[in-house]
Amino acid sequence: MKSLTQLTFDNRFARLGDTFSTEVSPQPLNDPRLVVVSEAAMALLDLDPAEAEQPLFAELFSGHKIWSTAEPRAMVYSGHQFGSYNPQLGDGRGLLLGEVVNEAGEHWDLHLKGAGKTPYSRMGDGRAVLRSSIREFLASEHLHALGIPSSRALCVTSSSTPVYRERPERGAMLLRLAQSHVRFGHFEFFYYTRQHDALRELLDHVLGAHFAECLEHPEPYRAFFREVLERTATLIAYWQAYGFCHGVMNTDNMSILGITFDFGPYAFLDDFDARFICNHSDDTGRYSFENQVPIAHWNLAALAQALTPFVEVKVLRETMELFLPLYEAEWLDLMRRRLGFAQAEADDEALVRRVLQLMQASAVDYTTFFRELSESPAEQAVRRLREDFVDLQGFDAWAADYCARTAREGSEPAERQARMQAVNPKYILRNYLAQQAIEAAEKGDYAPVRELHAVLSRPFEEQPGMQRYAERPPEWGKHLKISCSS
Ligand code: AMP
Ligand code: MG
User: Fold this and answer.
1) Which residues line ligand 1 (CB under 6 A)?
2) From 35, 152, 289, 476, which residue has the greatest number of CB atoms within 10 Å?
3) From the alpha carbon of 77, which atom of ligand 1 is closest?
4) How many whole angstroms from 201 Cα to the centroid of ligand 2?
């Protein structure tokens, strides 16, 4: 276990120099207060959990102090936003403080979000508000606990510094951890500015640091694109299987590591609705829940375009064709597990699609459906769930097929229950739960956000006394308007 002063930095990205990032110092927030900390994220840096109690902790993560071996820098990138190319993006309000090497030899980027203006701030103030910082913190740590690849969050600090959005809000900072902060948009920037030498340098850095296995391949860049595509297909399969709606799948928000990245107006589905749009500003539904699959494919095409100086177009096209089959196989596998099937059968996909259609038609709560279906025996579980469906005939027919399918597997009811509960969360991050915790935190009461974080970091376990977090949402809680402005 280490103290804060014992962290070791090895700033590989900073060493790439000024073509890729610009030196910027964090601008501190007034009267910093620590809102919430993730002990699991501290462990990634080998930090002793007691370090969070030290005044230095809040000082470091609100921009007041910085390690002498950190090298804070703003990265440059561009990207496609809602389908249009924006040539100039970059870290407008976050800084890569440096890369910490842990005892396992892993590099973890420390990225301080809300750290003030940078050369890439455009019209923005370089700040983040408490509301959005808490939302990103809760989601990243919860996704990780669900087994879904994600950037991580170490802590949120709040302050008395006012930040103006639709109303004055509290300025805050989030310390994000990820093994890389390189996005699809990084490659697009160097491609569209015709800096092909820099593009190659970026590729070599990313391969060396994060895709070492691709270097063994006779065509490393080709292998790299395929690997990114596979990881992205897996990630999207998880999102779709668990009802996660990202909300702003611009290419600058797509991690090259295939992890969930840059949280804005995201939501987990309450009622199952394939056409759900979580971003209040997404008028056309470009990033609706069901569109996440074709959009991920579209984003991979944007990345492929940026790789055309080094990989043949024909090869990129062939690789692109692997996306949908890969995604579908992964998604079906996850759904099969959610339904409690240990083996695959030919009709499984039809069985999954039928129940989703029934859920869609009756606006059935997505998370509780699978958790309650985990109850034993299956016959009893479906009898209870039947109450939620309007099309009883349709549901009864499905339930009969489901029970027969379950019986054919012949697993012990208790074993089936345990297997299903291990993949079907009891607790999910619902927008209204986040909202309640945020409202308390804005008034200076951090107990609710800490409790919510604790519950959501063990989403599959029964937690006595925490039933209120597992309930179906109230009607008002399903219709919160969340937009990009954060
Ligand atoms: P996002 O919507 O958070 O993914 O941000 C898109 C782009 O806008 C990125 O380049 C951000 O750095 C930049 N940005 C977002 N909010 C701000 C802000 N308040 N100040 C400066 N830049 C910002
Ligand atoms: Mg972003």
Assistant:
1) 89-93, 120-121, 124-127, 248, 253, 262, 264, 484
2) 35
3) 10
4) 23
Read off the amino acid at residue 172. Answer: A
C-alpha closest to that of 155 among 139, 171, 175: 175
Pocket test for ligand 1, best of 85, 89, 93 (most atoms within 8 A of CB): 93
Q: Is the separation of the CB atoms in 171 and 114 below 8 Å?
A: yes
**What is the pLDDT at residue 479?**
81
Question: What is the tens place of the pLDDT at every residue in 175-189?
Answer: 999 999 999 999 999
Which residue among 109, 252, 271, 273 is the active-site one?
252
Region of residue 83 (left: phi > 0; alpha: psi -120 to 50; beta: else):
left
- 363, 432, 479, 480 from 475: Cα distances, Å: 12, 10, 7, 10
- Report the separation in Å between the CA atom of 130 and the middle of ligand 2, taken as the mean of its atom positions: 17
For the chain, the three-class secondary structure string (H helix, E strand, C coil) is: CECHHHCEECCHHHHCCCCCEEECCCCCCCCCEEEEECHHHHHHCCECHHHHHCHHHHHHCCCCCCCCCCCCEEECCCEEECCEEECCCCCCCEEEEEEEECCCCCEEEEEEECCCCCCCCCCCCCCEEHHHHHHHHHHHHHHHHHCCCECEEEEEEEEEEEEECCCEEEEEEEEEEECCCCEHHHHHHHHHCCCHHHHHHHHHHHHHHHCHHHHHCCCHHHHHHHHHHHHHHHHHHHHHHHCEECCCCCHHHCECCCCECCCCCCEECCECCCCCCCECCCCCCCCCCCCHHHHHHHHHHHHHHHCCCCCCHHHHHHHHCCHHHHHHHHHHHHHHHHCCCCCCCCCHHHHHHHHHHHHHHHCCEHHHHHHHHCCCCHHHHHHHHHHHCCCHHHHHHHHHHHHHHHHHHCCCHHHHHHHHHCCCCCCCCCHHHHHHHHHHHHCCCCHHHHHHHHHHCCCCCCCCCCHHHHCCCCHHHHCCCECCCC
Q: What is the pLDDT of residues 397-431, one digit of tens each?
A: 999 999 999 999 998 999 999 999 999 999 999 99
Q: Which ligand approaches the C-alpha of residue 172 most closely?
A: 1
What is the pLDDT, as a whole number, of residue 482? Answer: 81
Q: Tell me if residue 197 is catalytic.
A: no
**What's the CA gap between 241 and 405, in Å, rounded?**
20
Give the span between the Cα atoms of 132 and 264, in whole angstroms: 7
User: What are φ and ψ of residue 30, in 5° steps?
Assistant: -80, 145
Place of tokens 């092909």: 196
Give pLDDT tens digits for 343-385.
999 999 999 999 999 999 999 999 999 999 999 899 999 999 9
Question: 102-130: per-residue pLDDT in tens?
Answer: 999 999 999 999 999 999 999 999 999 99
